[in-house]
Structures are given as C-alpha cells and as structure tokens.
Specification:
Layout lengths: L1 E4 L2 E4 L8 H10 L4 H14 L5 H8 L3 H13 L22 H13 L5 H10 L6 H10 L5 H12 L9 E3 L6 E9 L5 E9 L5 E6 L4 H14 L7 E3 L7 H9 L4 E3 L9 H13 L10 H17 L11 H10 L8 E3 L2
Parallel strand pairs: 4-7, 7-8
Antiparallel strand pairs: 1-2, 3-9, 4-5, 5-6
Length: 345
C-alpha cells in the first residue's frame, strides 16, 4: 500500500492497518513541528510492527522508555501530544523592585541620557533608594533606554581588553620600552600635518617623522623607521589608544612578536616621557620659527632637530649628557640600580 506522510510517499508492506491512511492525512493537515513529525514516524513504524517496542527502539536507536512514552501520548491525545511542551518555568521569578524606584530610574535616565548605571545608582542612594547598579542596568535594558551602539562598543572593549604594562615594570636597559605618540602641527597657510615621535624611556633617544594623516598604515610605516634607526633592539612599545596605533600598527607588532602596551584612556601622564618631549619640541623648535608652508622643508628641519636632540642637546634627566653619550656610558659600565626606571600602573 502506498500513502502520503508529511509530504512524502511511504510504503507499508503486509496487511493494511486500520486508520493508517487517516494518520498519514492528518500529518499533512495538522500543525505539528518537525520534531513531532519525526516522533510520529516512530509511532507509525511501531504500529506497523505489532507494537514491538524493543524492535522499534533498536531500529531508530532510541530508548524503549522513550518509544513507550511517545506511543502512550499519541494513544491518549493524538499527534498534537508529540509536540514539545513549553520549557518555561512554572514559577517565574517576579520583579522585586518597586515601581517608584523604576519610575525614578527612568526619570533620571531621560534627564541625563549619557549617565551610566553606576552614576544613577549614586543619585538614587542620595534619595534613600538602595538598589544595585546591576538592577539599574536591567531596568534600563527592559525600558529600552540603552544606546545599542555604545553598549556593543563597551561590550567588545570588555571582552577584548587592551594589554597594559604590568605594575612595577622595570626599565634597566635601552629599548626596554619605547613610547610613541603624535603631535599635530599647523604649517604656514593653515595645513595640518602630524609629527610621529618615538622616545626610548631610559636613554631619551628619539626618532621623529612627519605624516599627512593619522592612518594606522602611517603608524606601521613609522614603526619600521624606528626599528631601522634606533641603535638597539626595541623590546616593548607603549602608545595611547589613537587609531594610528590600531589595525596595521598593532598587526605589525604581532608579526614581529613585539609587545604593544596601551595606556588607559584619557591618562596621557602614563605616556609622560613622549608627552614631555613634545613640550620641548614646542618651546625649542616650533616657537623658534621652524614652521614652513612646504612639508619637505619642514622634514629637513625636523631631521636636524632630531640630530640636535640625540647628539648635541644636554638633558637634565641624563645628568646633562646627550642621549648618545648616555647610551655609550651604560654600554661600558653597568647601570646603577638607582638609575633604573620603575613604571607604576
């Protein structure tokens, strides 16, 4: 006999079972899930084999208890009983936060849309409403008062934290840490260019270059220049969180197996050596008339300033030696432990 089951033809060999044609027709008309259709197929096969539970279980690779359960459900209720029941808990946890607090949270959020759940928690505490920051966050989410773009950005940042230098990082030799940063410079005529600066924390030796934009490709190119120009191996790099130090710059660091540490956002003092050197650039270079409308002329002047910084200018921090003299000194004699630089996170 040939019939139709779940849109497909089926063949039953032997005697015709009573109601089997109706069963096949019901399957096509009744609103049952795909899983339920598979279970119905098992029940159908069981009925066509003299209700042999063991044979059916072996045939489909199921437990006999499961087969009996599906058969009994079908016999009691019908094929709709083979659908999955709701997995929702019988006793659903009820909200315990009072509506007054919820109303106040919504009011504060609408008045100060940029405030975080922690700030809102403090405001509520001032009004003798004690709730956790997590509760505030859940209520904001339930009331659709969270900016999805900001939330996704913060979530990504939390899941992929940027590497920071370890607390008590000890610098005892040249190249242990090189800080890199950028400084915008306005040329004559108003055009803006960017000075990329790299400074060795211990010896104060620097590498300088001008670029027309803050692209990470330019950052990667500058890193290659630093690797070529510094007369020692660079062991670690530290930068701020600017876009010029992401993507291609960070990719190059990983390819070179060069640790790349980021300072915390809005904490420029953690990059203090390169920031201080930019102050010297402003006073001793740019304010002395070294600004031009031609970028090539400015590049020539910047190269001369780099040479002056490394080979001529005495540095108070180096006991009035030049970076080159100080580097030669620590190469000949071991660095005094008191002269080691220890960075605090």
């Amino acid at each position: 006999m040939k019939g139709k089951y779940s849109g497909k033809h089926m063949t039953i060999y032997g005697s015709v079972l009573p109601g089997i044609r109706s069963l096949a027709n019901w399957a096509t008309r009744t609103n049952i899930t795909e899983k339920a259709k598979q279970r119905l197929k098992v029940v159908d096969w069981l009925r066509s084999h003299k209700d042999d539970v063991s044979l059916t279980a072996r045939h489909f690779g199921l437990d006999r208890k499961t087969v009996r359960s599906w058969r009994d459900k079908f016999n009691r209720v019908g094929m709709l009983a083979l659908n999955d029941k709701s997995h929702k808990p019988k006793n659903v946890r009820q909200q315990t936060t009072s509506w007054q607090i919820v109303e106040e949270i919504v009011k504060i959020r609408k008045e100060y849309p940029a405030w975080s759940k922690w700030k809102i928690q403090i405001i509520l505490k001032r009004k003798n409403m004690n709730v956790s920051a997590s509760t505030v966050g859940r209520i904001l989410k339930r009331k659709c008062l969270i900016d999805k773009k900001v939330s996704v950005k913060r979530s990504k940042a939390a899941k992929n934290p940027k590497q920071r230098y370890p607390r008590g990082f000890r610098i005892t030799s040249a190249g242990d840490m090189v800080q890199i940063d950028t400084k915008f410079v306005t040329m004559l005529g108003g055009r803006m260019i960017y000075q990329f600066t790299a400074i060795d924390v211990l010896t104060k030796r620097r590498v300088l270059r001008f670029y027309s934009s803050l692209l990470s490709k330019n950052g990667a190119d500058f890193l290659k220049v630093c690797l070529a120009k510094f007369p020692f191996q660079i062991k670690t790099i530290q930068t701020d969180n600017g876009k010029e130090f992401l993507k291609y710059f960070d990719k190059l660091c990983k390819e070179l197996n060069l640790p790349h540490y980021y300072i915390q956002a809005r904490h420029p003092k953690q990059n203090t050596y390169v920031e201080n050197s930019h102050g010297s650039d402003e006073r001793e270079f740019y304010q002395q008339g070294n600004v031009d409308k031609d970028i090539e002329a400015m590049n020539v002047a910047l190269e001369k300033w780099e040479h002056t910084w490394n080979y001529i200018r005495p540095h108070e921090a180096l006991n009035y030696l030049t970076p080159d003299e100080y580097l030669n000194k620590i190469r000949i004699t071991n660095l005094d432990p008191k002269q080691a630089i220890i960075l605090q996170a």
